[in-house]
Write a structure and sequence with these properties.
InterPro entries: Acyl_CoA_acyltransferase, Bact_Acetyltransf, GNAT_dom
Protein name: GNAT family N-acetyltransferase
Radius of gyration: 15 Å
Structural class: alpha+beta
Number of helices: 4
CATH topology: Aminopeptidase
Keywords: Acyltransferase, Transferase
Largest sheet: 7 strands, mixed
Number of domains: 1
Pfam family, one: Acetyltransf_1
CATH class: Alpha Beta
Strand content: 35-45%
Number of strands: 7
Bound molecules: coenzyme A
CATH superfamily: Gcn5-related N-acetyltransferase (GNAT)
CATH architecture: 3-Layer(aba) Sandwich
Organism: Sphingomonas swuensis
């Protein structure tokens, strides 16, 4: 899994059976200073909801990344994405964002959006995948010590084909 050898990456649609694997990625991916990670209860609670999609990326059978998104009417929101530190910089998050965009388009979504903490390196990831900053939500994330962080709203507009 480490090094720069080509990745044998598989991305599967996940559900409750894969929640342990997804939580192991979440627990290793997010810096607790920023209050961005979801708890197991939050993930389990949203999974049965209509339009929710949980994708799990595995490399050599090990869980290395995930994304969580939700479609409502013609909108799709990328709620959360994470890759374990030892597998970063190898395009796994990019593959998950590409899959979110492709699945959303296939489902007829015309407006794709997300929120991200201002200053999170993921802003570059989203920009690279044609998301643009559309707004700012002041003091949106709360760290464990009560520190507040702004969120940026980013959008991707699906052009009619
Ligand atoms: C953000 C995150 C998902 C990126 O995962 P990754 O698999 O390393 O990302 P990729 O390898 O697909 O990177 C694709 C592009 O994103 C950008 N990017 C990713 N990580 C970056 C970083 N630390 N600094 C700057 N740009 C970064 C780059 O543009 C990169 O393209 P490049 O490799 O051609 O330069 C990962 O760092 C992570 O899990 N962070 C913690 C959780 C989090 O904050 N998630 C986002 C909010 S929900």
């Amino acid at each position: 899994m480490s090094g720069t050898a080509p990745l044998a990456l598989t991305i599967v649609q996940a559900g409750g059976d894969e929640l342990d694997e997804v939580m192991s990625v979440i627990e290793r991916s997010f810096d607790p200073r920023f209050g961005e990670a979801w708890t197991r209860a939050q993930c389990a609670g949203i999974l049965p909801m209509s339009g929710v999609s949980l994708l799990l990326a595995r490399s050599e059978d090990e869980p290395v990344g995930f994304s969580l998104s939700r479609r409502v009417a013609d909108e799709a929101e990328l709620l959360l994405i994470g890759v374990v530190p030892e597998a970063r910089g190898r395009g796994i998050a990019g593959a998950l964002v590409d899959r979110f965009v492709a699945d959303s388009r296939a489902a007829g979504s015309s407006h794709l959006h997300l929120e991200v903490r201002d200053g999170n390196p993921a802003v570059s990831l989203y920009r690279q995948h044609q998301f643009g900053v559309a707004g700012r939500r002041s003091k949106y994330y709360r760290g464990p010590g009560g520190e507040l962080f702004d969120a940026l709203t980013m959008v991707y507009t699906v052009e009619p084909q």
